[in-house]
Amino acid sequence: MVKISPSILNADLANLEREVKSLEIAGADMLHIDVMDGVFVPNISIGLPVVKSLRKCTDMFFDVHLMIVNPEKYVERFIECGADLVSIHYESTADAGKVLDTIRNLGKKAGLAISPKTEPKEIFHLLPKCDLVLVMTVEPGFGGQKLIESAVEKIAILKAEILKQNLETVVEVDGGINAENAPKLRSRGADILVAGSYITSSNDRKKAIDSLR
Ligand code: DX5
Ligand code: ZN
Q1: 37 phi/psi in degrees, rounded to 5
Q2: Active-site residue 101, yes or no?
Q3: pLDDT by residue, tens only, the chain of 213 residues
Q4: Residue 95 catalytic?
């Protein structure tokens, strides 16, 4: 069954512990933490001290999505602060393969994200270094945007290539996901769905999560 990784980006950030507990109780499989630097994307979200503080209040698996330039400078520190999986953007660094190796060498799961304009074939050679690929279905930077339909076909393209290379890499999809478009993403082969505003703005988060499965 597809796993659900709620994003806390549009949650009540003044009450993060309560928010995280509520998502856990609602049946989230992991927690998606969006890190933005104001350079790779035109927004600034949360960073190392918040991840470290959150680590003290939950045992949930931390799925950390770095939307920052030069992620090689920070992956080790995000892991020290409690990240279980770190996804970096292919577009954010000169040598994504090296950063993926660093994450794995530190004993954590390595993810590679692609923005809507990046073609899947650009990352085929890196798939053996990836525990996860993250297909962005919105331009990274903000929650609450509409899913870009043309990005959806990338899921099946990546799944086919993963099969061809005989890998166990999972495909995560992120951006503008709701109960209406989730069936299409699942049928293309998505293993993990990230959803932010759809879940956090719902007054029944369990129902919202269940509706995505
Ligand atoms: C966008 C982030 C997403 C986003 C998800 O840059 O990576 O994780 O916050 O939020 P929704 O589901 O509201 O698009
Ligand atoms: Zn994200």
Answers
A1: -110, 0
A2: no
A3: 999 999 999 999 999 999 999 999 999 999 999 999 999 999 999 999 999 999 999 999 999 999 999 999 999 999 999 999 999 999 999 999 999 999 999 999 999 999 999 999 999 999 999 999 999 999 999 999 999 999 999 999 999 999 999 999 999 999 999 999 999 999 999 999 999 999 999 999 999 999 999
A4: no
Q: 175 CB under 6 A from ligand 1?
A: yes
**Cβ neighbours for 180, distance < 8 A, ≥ 6 positions apart:** none
For the Cβ of 34 lying below 6 angstroms from any atom of ligand 1, the answer is yes
> One of 29, 63, 131, 174 is an active-site residue; which one?
174
179 C-alpha vs ligand 1 centroid, how far in Å? 15
